[in-house]
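Subject: complex prediction, re-run

Hi both,

The earlier run crashed halfway through, so I resubmitted it with identical inputs.
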Amino acid sequence: MTTAPTTPPDSRSRRRGEAAIELLIWLAGVSAIAIVALIFFFLLREGINTFLDIPLRQLFGVRWYPIEDQFGLMPLLVGTFLVTIGAVVIAVPLGVVAAIYLGEIAPLWLREILKPLIEILAGIPSIVLGFLGWVALAPIIQNLGAPTGLTAFTGSLLLAYMSLPTIISISEDALYAVPKEYRDGSLAIGATQWQTIWRVVLPAARSGLVIAVMLGIGRVIGETMAVLMVTGNAANIPNFGLSMFFSPVRTMTATIAAEMGEVAQGSLHYSVLFGIGLILFLITFTVNWLATRLVGVEGARRQRGGRL
Amino acid sequence: MSRQRSQRLAVALITAVAVLVFVPVIAIIGYLIVSGIGALNWEFLTAMPRNGMKEGGIMPAIVGTLILTMGTALVSMPVSLLAAIYLAEYARDNRLTRTIRMAIVNLAGIPSIVYGLFGLGAFVLAAGFGTSIIAGSLTLGIMTMPVVISTAEEAINSVPQQFRTVSLSLGASKWQTIRHQVLPHALPGILTGMILGLSRAAGETAPILFTVAAFYVPTLPSSIFDQTMALPYHLYVISTQVPGMPLTIQYGTALVLLLITLTLTLLATGVRTTMRRRRDW
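This time it finished cleanly. Structure:
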């Protein structure tokens, strides 16, 4: 314990100093709201022309040719959708099952080794994973028979691993929150460990697992650099079918990153890139809002921020 | 299928999936170390790039990343700490508090490229800073706030209530109690959050693309209104934008960036583990 305060308790200047500090503390707390509002304001200010100057029919059209002033967002929406679906299909089973392994099966000593590994994975910059995808993973995928290694699937694979830390740690929290009595009761009436996990623990942890999936999706939709490097950057809609996932695509985030450097400030193209940012902001806002509604803000905060 | 057999099968499958998750992590780290270690030498770390960045070192990018990380700390840490104190010690359970928490959860979910757009609109253009270290630091600083606030608040909440009660009963004011009793005990947890936030900032590319990062500048920045090179953007540039770049330089750059962020991550988890062992309540 540190030493007790020595200032006399009734000095007036001290009280004034404290009032100032407490005002600062209040301001800092409220600043979070101000920042969200400012982000929304600046995206709207720079991007509003997208929605004023381009007819909706064209905006959701299928041609993205900025040089000819064709700003159809459909190819980018489809690109983001394909990459996200692929990543979710890979990451959700892997993440939830890995959390089951950590929480229910792994011996304590192994858990102590594996949990830091998840933090290490979370600590790898996305550009480094993108680089590895570009130099190492894409050639492998091409050798498997795709016309090019730079495909939606390549992006999904990278994004799946990037979202694993989020999905695993939230799922693990959800499993951990299931009371031990549930497991004991199930085992006591003769169920095997697997029956207990499948019939008792997983259903009880259901809502937490849904949050894990949602926040994982939020993470995937917003990722930029890795998808920019490995998805092939083709802003067109691949033909419908399973082969879609093995075609080059272009996501919304990658479009902003790739094109913002070349546009003239104030041009329509510039506004549209901000407009895409606004759409992304609204999508992630909705995902987080829904997740918050499901567990309450306290739960979402704990599950999201505290553990990276 | 008997119950015992399905039990064995399920455990085997779950274990196999765990292998699929954890082995690639080790493989990624190992592969980068093996491929990049050859490039690391004194010249690579301390020399300017030469011959269109195809020779020489990556010193300005390393320095730029360190400067930006410090700038991020200066922007993010004071505000985040105060906000965490507000939420943990002052906030009542009312609409304002719920809105603040909601805002923080949302900030944590905003894509990094959107922070980049915000930085461009707000700091580069509206505030008139231009593409500069200060614009980049502000952008990265705001981006790291949610992580730092959440971990700091958790650390403050984990200080036992009796510590506050005793301090207040001895006549200390609320702020004196926070300053002398709560914060010292919450410090390791607060530090963990701050270092994790910085490790994330150091590796980010999207928020600095339009706010500070330079393709190539032959000198080190001399003021906070200068552009600077930075490792994540440099890695992007040399791997995709410059044809004929030697692979060793690319792997070396990726490894240096990875080592910086991993050092910060491990430092953070180290602080947390030591704290948990030493905790005397």
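The beta strands of chain A are 64-65, 70-71.

- K.
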